[in-house]
Amino acid sequence: MLSDFARAVQTSLAQPKFTFLGDYNYVLNKPLNGVFALTPDKRLAVTLTSVTSPSVGGQITSFDPITGVKFDTEFVGSGPLEVDVVAVADGYRVAVLISQGGPRAVKIYDMNQSGVLTFRAQTQLTDSGADSGSNLVLSTSGQVGFTRVIFQGNSSQLVSFSLNDGSILDRINTFESANIKLYEDSTRRLIAASSIDFNTLGRRVVFFDAENPSQLQNLGQVNLPGTAFTFELEFTADGNYLFAGGSELSVINTSTRQVVSSLKNYNAQKIRISESNGSRLLAITPGATNGIALINADNLSNLQVINEISFSTTDPRLRDFTFSINGKRLFLNTDIGIQASSVPGLTTVWENVLPVSLGFRIETFGQPERIIGAWGSNNNFTATIYSLPNRTNRRVNFDADSKTDIGVFRPSIGTWYWLNSSNNNFRGFQFGQEGDIPVAADYDGDGQTDFGVYRPGKGVWYIFESSTNSVRSLQFGLSSDEPAQGDYDGDGKVDIAVFRRNPNRWYVIRSSDGKLMIRKLSGARAKPVLGDYDGDGKDDFVGFYSSGQWQAINSSSGNSTFQQFGQPGDIPLSGDWDGDGKSDLAVFRPSNGFWYIQQSFYGFRAIQFGLSTDIPVPADYDGDGNTDIAVFRPTNATWYILQSASQNTFGGGFKAVQFGLGTDIPLASRY
Question: Is the Cα torsion angle 354, 359, 360, 361 positive or negative in sign?
Fold first, then answer.
């Protein structure tokens, strides 16, 4: 929960960050509006700031969203409100909505692949200094844009305009609206506008057919239960339904324009939707409460709240939030930074405390996935933008995507072989010698697995870091020690560590400060098991005894706990099978080929998968955030993988891959 931010500041990720200075003194620029925008291919971004020299007004800046390198800046005039960008044949088209102290206008720019901005056209939307309104949406065709304006006297219009020459294509009267949302596919272009009846404060949504932007058509309105001053709208991926916030969360059929269902007592001020792996999840802010609710929206006639957390008045205020691309994480933007929470567990996976004031908005992009966000202060916006790499799958992830790579270490010749999960390319790398133990992990925190070996004879670690393409070595351990690398200090970098079975003790060199950390179990001759069982972003000190008993020293509390799960002969396993951000207790029983898993969110599961001679290699091979059941069969050098279908089921897809030799060490077995 957000109160975790009260702990000492942790930097769990590398933080490329860049600040575009300038006050943004326009109250209309709320998190609903676009203070920055990414190009559809995520190669470039644009942001708005205001300037005082040579003239008072605003400017648009193009930049690299990963490195922050600026490419170009153009003065846009007085009162920049919102920016958006779409792709066109020869680059990109950028539109900026400006207030000019009242009269609204749109400026249009060309932007090439190098980020160079060129003014193209300007369109005057209104004339009076008492006019208002904002909210800009652009068609993915790159040909047309839409906005809403409010004239003196509160009459309102939806306006369509050309992105080629800026000309007004059509205007259509509507109720005063707070938000417009666009859906389009190959057969239709539909706009929904939220609106308030100021006599009753009743909610309503007006639908427009915008397939022909020169002839906008009012399709009618839907009156919604409850009241609200402002509320958000979100289309489903197929455009067949619309979620409307306010004092109730409502579902509208966009064809019949009828309310399908409503979730009472949930004042959804903000709505975010994730549709992946055949499921539909909503995240909403439940009214004035500083908190988050997760909604199962698979059945739109019966919305189900599956989890909800509220934060205290002393917690940092939640400003914006968004799902990860695969829907397995929810990123929360607060007044002091970003927190990643598990889905559906809503437990803290990691957090980045940033030197910021108020959060505006965040967005995810790229592969490996990154988070970009902007922060400011009350009624002022300084484009302080952080581009944070999400914690990618660090189990045998040589190509830095979200999937585990199938890979082996051949000890006879000290060579690594693997298949990149991103493109299935075969790769090989000689690093090590006979007798070395592979200890591949992300030691430099760049999201990519580094090659590493532990040489027991000398007690020396050799690590080839991907960020610098250089080798570092460290003498740390005895010949009888077992490598037990993990991120024990939560800084996003794996720490060099060994486990000494007599007397059941970990020795860790923390990457954050280089200091030695020692932890000891109370029992005798345990097997170390890597995992974050309390979900605080740090690996815990966990041992499995031959009797089937587990002992854990939790990093969040320092307390030692015991639990019986398993029996003699079982092989302990590490993984997060339900995707809630916490490692689950699990064993593989060679005698019957069963996997027994005590999921921390969904409870107990058992499944038969494998033979007695198989080597268990659980990892996230499909990149959905859940650990997959998998074995390596030495008799035929084949990997058998049962991919997760959802958070609480297996069977999302079976695959068998022949890779390696029977004498190879499967890399995923080393965790």
Answer: positive
Reduced to 3 states, what is the DSSP secondary structure of residue 284?
Answer: strand
> Pick from 553, 550, 604: which is nearest to 578 by CA?
604
Mean per-residue pLDDT pooled into runs of 10, the chain (671 residues):
24 47 47 76 87 74 84 88 93 92 88 97 81 81 91 78 96 79 95 80 88 96 76 93 89 96 84 87 79 94 92 78 84 80 77 64 75 64 50 69 90 95 92 95 87 95 94 95 92 92 92 93 89 84 95 84 95 87 92 95 90 95 85 97 63 85 92 67
670 Cβ neighbours under 8 A, 6+ residues apart:
437, 438, 439, 440, 483
Distance of CA 502 to the CA centre of its chain: 42
Q: Return d(Cα 182, Cα 254) in angstroms, integer.
A: 12
Copy the structure tokens of residue 225: 């239960």
The model's pTM: 0.69
Which residues partner with 376 through β-bridges?
Answer: 358, 381
Asked if the bond preceding 572 is cis, omega within 30° of 0, the reply is: no
Rounded to an integer, what distance in angstroms lies between the CA atom of residue 407 and that of residue 428? 9
Strands (E), 476-624: 482-483, 496-500, 505-509, 516-520, 527-528, 541-544, 549-553, 560-564, 571-573, 585-589, 594-599, 603-608, 615-616
Asked if omega into 368 is within 30° of 0 (cis), the reply is yes
Taking the C-alpha atoms of residue 144 and residue 95, their distance in angstroms, rounded to an integer, is 10
